[in-house]
Each structure stands twice: as C-alpha cells, then as structure tokens.
Amino acid sequence: MPELPEVETVRRGLAPFFDNATICRVEQRRPDLRFPFGDDFVARLENRQVVSFSRRAKYLLLDLDSGDVLVMHLGMSGSFRWIETEDAEPTQTVEMYHAKGKHPQHDHVIFHVRPADRETIVKIIYNDPRRFGFMVLIPRSELATHPMFVDMGIEPLGNELDGAYLAKLFENRKTSLKAALLNQKFIAGLGNIYVCEALWRTGLSPFNSASTLAGKSGKPLKKADELSNHIREVLQEAIESGGSSLKDHRQADGSLGYFQHNFSVYDREGEACRTPKCSGVIERKVQNGRSTFFCPKCQK
Predict the structure, then answer these.
(1) CA 125 to CA 252: how far, in whole Å?
(2) What CATH code is carried by the domain that includes residue 14?
(3) What distance in Å separates the CA atoms of residue 53 and residue 205, rounded to the nearest whole number?
(4) Which of 203, 209, 249, 258 has its CA 20 to 30 A from that of 106?
(5) In a domain, 148, yes or no
(6) d(Cα 246, Cα 15) in Å, to the nearest integer?
(7) Which residues are annotated as a binding site?
(8) Known binding residues for DNA
(9) What is the tens place of the pLDDT at every residue in 203-257?
C-alpha cells in the first residue's frame, strides 16, 4: 500500500492540474470501488471549482467551492495519470497512454478538468485493478469529526513533531517503539517502510518499549530528538525520489519512484548492515503482523 511519500508524490504531480481548476465532467465507470460512490457522486463534482488540493496522512483531499471535500485513498493498487488534450472541449477523443500494467478496463473514474492557467482540458484518470481504493464526498464542516479523521494524529512533516513530543506521546506506553510509530492515532501517515528506515538511522531497536524515548524524569532523551529528525529526513528524501516503486506505485506522469534503491534496511534481509564499522547482518522478523527489518548489532 502506498505510504505518505508516495501519496505526497502523487499530490505534487497532480497539483498543477487540480489547483483552482474547474471540474467540467466526470466519468464514473462503475458503481463502487471499496465503497459505493453514491447516486449523486457525479452531480456533486461536475461544474465545481477546486478551492485547494491537499494531503492528510495517506488521503488526498480535493476541496470544492460547493463546501464538499472529495477524499481519495489509493488503496493497494490505485494510481492516477493525466493526459492533456489539444482542444478545450471536454468531449474530445484523444489517444490514451496506458502505463505498463495499467489496463484501460481498470480506469474507473476520469476527471475532465480545466486548469486555471489554461484553456485546454486535462483528463485525470484513476486506475485501480484491485479496487481497494475509494473516493467519498464529505461536507467540509463535517471533515474534522468524520470517523476517518477524528482520531488522526499529527503530520510527521509538520512542526509539532520533535523529541519532546515523541517522549510525551509515548510516556508510560509499554507497546513496542515500532508499533507506536505505526499507530495512526499518534502520528498520521507513517508506514512500515519508512519507520524501519528511520529506526535504523537512529540506531534504535524496533522492539524497544516506546516509553524508552524518555528518561526517568520524563524528559526526552537525545535519541528522541534524533528519531524525530530521521523520520522527517527519510520522508523528505523519499518524496524527492518520487516515492518507492514497490508493486503497483507509479507517479502521476507514469514514471517510477526510485527511493527503494536507497533502502538501507528494508527488504535487505541477510545483507550486511550499512552502518559504518558495523559488522551486523540485516534480519527480518514478523512484528504485529508486519515485516520488521533491522540490524541486531547496531540497533539497541
């Protein structure tokens, strides 16, 4: 499933077309994805202007001038791509490019949008072979209290995340450090890949108790500050690399992300640890139903 960097990469790729655009037409090619679209899905989208296009955790949010917010999730295999037509008419037929493995029968929703800075129509196509993604319209006034968002934690790239916040958040918690970091009620958007990478960079074992980020006095230890910095660092590096292309993820222009080539620990079981002067070998263990990759020698 795409993690925060992959979703943010998609947002950045589509932003030039969605920002302040007018949604001229919507093709809904099936009644549902993971959830039903609803009978008024198309009617509530067509002829609406986009006020803003943002991301919250692993969700894409299209804020409309009607007061609705279109919340989109990529699921396991969802992806977007765009095609710019040569004519301003939204009904024009154009030759479509289909990225490898993205067959046209899996093109379930097509937005025909007119970006604010041009007269031509851009087709933004949502493709999802497994149909685990979804799109749901939520009134803006109800967004903060909606079940998907009401208990959501802070953004890991925001200013709130630092060592003191982590130490306070995990105070007296006996759950493992990795499980706590993956809990979306604490920090929103962190996923398995980047937690493994951040913990390795910090030299912390994923099996430590989450409460060990603070000393007996309750003050954050140096490792807490280092961990918060490495979380932000690894996410930013992944975003700049276009995310990690594992299985289904592609960027909006159809190209592959390449951060997977920079993995230092994830999916490197049996390989030598890359920490300087460390003679350890990367191990894999199943932790809370997820694969954990770590170096047993330098992650303490």
Answers:
(1) 9
(2) 3.20.190.10
(3) 37
(4) 258
(5) no
(6) 23
(7) 106, 130, 173
(8) 106, 130, 173
(9) 999 999 999 999 988 899 999 999 999 999 999 998 888 655 444 434 444 444 4
Question: Which residues are tagged catalytic?
Answer: 2-3, 58, 290
- pLDDT of 287 above 70: yes
CA dihedral 134, 139, 145, 151 (to 10 degrees): 30
Q: Does 158 fall in a domain?
A: no
CB atoms near residue 91 (< 10 Å): 10
Chain segment 152-192, per-residue pLDDT in tens? 999 999 999 999 999 999 999 999 999 999 999 999 999 99
Q: Which two tokens stand for residue 225?
A: 């500050």
Pair 8, 50 in one domain: yes
Q: Nearest 5°: phi and psi at 72?
A: -125, 135
Instruction: Give the residue numbers spanning the domain of 289.
Output: 163-294
Residues 180 and 286 in one domain: yes
- pTM for the model: 0.86
Tell me if 40 is assigned to some domain: yes
Tell me the CATH number at 271. Answer: 1.10.8.50
CA end-to-end distance (rounded Å), the chain: 29
Question: Is 272 part of a structural domain of the chain?
Answer: yes
